[in-house]
Amino acid sequence: MINWKVIFGIAKTHLLTKMKSTVTASLGVTFGIGAYITLVSFMTGLNGMLDDLILNQTPHVHLYNEIEPSEEQPIEKFTPFEDAWNIVHSVKPKQSQRKIHNAVPILNYLREDEKVKGAAPQLNAQIFYISGSIELGGNLIGVNIMEEVRLSNIQDYIVEGSPQALNNNENGILLGAGLAKKMSLSPGDRVQISTVQGDIFPLKIVGIYQSGLADVDNARSFANLKTVQRILGEAENYITDINVKLHNLSEAILMARQLEKQFQIKARDIKEANAQFETGSNIRNLITYAVSVTLLIVAGFGIYNILNMLIYEKMKDIAILKATGFSGFDVQMIFMSQAIIIGVIGGLLGLIIGFGLSSLIDGIAFETEALPTITTYPINYNPGYYVIGITFALISTFIAGYLPSKKAKRIDPVRIIRGT
Amino acid sequence: MNTVLEAKNINKHFRKPVDFHVLKDISFNVKKGEFASIMGKSGCGKSTLLYILSTMDTDYEGNLYLNEELVTGKDHKELSRIRNEHIGFVFQFHYLLSEFSVIENVMLPAKKLGLKSEEEIIHDAQQKLDMLNIGNLAKKRASRISGGEKQRVAIARALINNPSILMGDEPTGNLDSYNAENVFQIFKKLKEEEGLSLLVVTHDIDFAKRTDRIIVMEDGRILPD
């Protein structure tokens, strides 16, 4: 039978009378956990921001027609030369259309797939922006803007105006920020664009788009899909790109290969497009965890030391407790509960300090061209990290307390009392 | 008269550094209400015997009975419980827990036993302290009282669970003659008024002479009376 009240009473008295050691041990845990929370919130926040920067603008699977040479040259189909070694010089790309063949049925097929969150058609057109006598080269992308909002967070990069404005205006354009600056244009103004064929169209600027990548902002603008089809004089099924967003990113590779085979089209998955990016992300996470675990282990050793010292100091107390009828297990529990109390108090304080520091960082101004929607340093307030933090605090104090308390359990009272 | 404590053919060896036969075939008993003392020269094994009798040392051969029940061979948990409930112990040094107040020190074994409510335990502890004329010290820290007072607190702690037997390992060895006499009078009073059995190891011949029975040990054996 264990009388927990008595055991906690003794543990509490020990902790309160050795306030200095208690505070030192708790602070060790507090700093460990606090630093862990701050670091992990900040690092994952930063990672998340970088992820968004790249990944939001990259579809999980991108379908398009690649201009490339034919795999099989005509001579290989000519039977008399079947067994010959044919060499063809100056191979040219195959004449093919830019539009995706059967784009509408493919779109419908994708939209019915359960794994697909959405598929957005795009029409990428080479155009010139005309400002007086100056022509600026660039591209105009025809999009279904509300689908883009749902699938690629385009609204985060529209610094003036809104996606709805484009949706409502048939002749609207979301002009790239670099272009707007060069041509001294602002929303409400008109901009003239010219197709490669030389047809000129006026479009009304309903908003400014800023991706943060200067090259993109100096060339790219968005308009409604139908508008661009009309400008190019093409039919409603003229689509050059399909961007697919999946529910689960990890299925992208498989899906891309499958679509390539099924529709005889080029399909590029997100991993292929951002291979080096993911490596960077993983390494940053690894560093975060390595530093955090080191901090927590150091805190654990602090507790181990202090409890070890406490047990040497309390040798006689332990002996007398055993002599008056406390079992070895009771004594072990006295020291274990001290470790756990230190862990809980230190851990909770650590969480509070971690949260405080995170909020502090969250409040520091961080303005960058690259991320128009971000004004302060990014922090990830994922409650999961707080759960991990307190769990680790408890586990490390448990282990740090277990070894010394096991020693206390084994102390032979006779040897202590007789002084041998 | 009932037997409180009985030892039958107890043998003990110290194995380190060399094999040494400390206790040789010890058999004796303590009756209820008896005040017995064990005397002998240093190193004759009297303290060793006492620690075996107290159940703290389990490394011996032979049988030990407490209240006519065999305690040899029980596991540590049960032995802790038996010590807690049936045996009170007073040492040469007081061994109080210095962070706790006097009354908390006295209450600890009773709290561990857990048979009474907190209020009852406080009441009992205060009663024991009053009986030993140190009731006024109850709230003081155990480290702030004099040596004689500490030993009395230790006696109160030993008595809190109304044990079957009170054992002492030189309980007066570290006290001046005034306080030693005081402790002896307390023991005598406990025997006479409460019918408590006592077994005390001592060097003090004057102390031993006034007990009911002296057990003399020499070279690990009990000498015949």
UniProtKB/TrEMBL annotation, chain A:
Organism from which the protein derives: Poritiphilus flavus
PANTHER family for this protein: LIPOPROTEIN-RELEASING SYSTEM TRANSMEMBRANE PROTEIN LOLE
The MacB-like periplasmic core domain, residue ranges: 22-248
UniProt xrefs under Pfam families: FtsX, MacB_PCD
Keyword terms, alphabetized: Cell membrane, Membrane, Transmembrane, Transmembrane helix
Residues passing through the membrane, by range: 21-43, 286-307, 339-365, 385-403
InterPro entries to which the protein is assigned, alphabetical: ABC3_permease_C, Lipoprotein-release_system, MacB_PCD
Assigned GO CC terms: plasma membrane protein complex
Membrane topology: Multi-pass membrane protein
Name assigned to this protein: FtsX-like permease family protein
A GO BP annotation: lipoprotein localization to outer membrane
Subcellular location: Cell membrane
Protein family membership: Belongs to the ABC-4 integral membrane protein family. LolC/E subfamily.
Residues annotated as domain ABC3 transporter permease C-terminal: 290-413
From TrEMBL, chain B:
Protein name per its UniProtKB record: ATP-binding cassette domain-containing protein
Keywords carried by this UniProt record: ATP-binding, Nucleotide-binding, Transport
Leader sequence residues: none
Family: Belongs to the ABC transporter superfamily. Macrolide exporter (TC 3.A.1.122) family.
GO cellular component, one term: membrane protein complex
CDD domains: ABC_MJ0796_LolCDE_FtsE (cd03255)
Entry keyword annotation includes Cell wall biogenesis/degradation: no
Molecular function, one GO term: transmembrane transporter activity
Domain ABC transporter, first and last residues per copy: 5-225
Matches recorded under InterPro entries: AAA+_ATPase (IPR003593), ABC_transporter-like_ATP-bd (IPR003439), ABC_transporter-like_CS (IPR017871), ABC_transpr_LolD-like (IPR015854), MacB-like_ATP-bd (IPR017911), P-loop_NTPase (IPR027417)
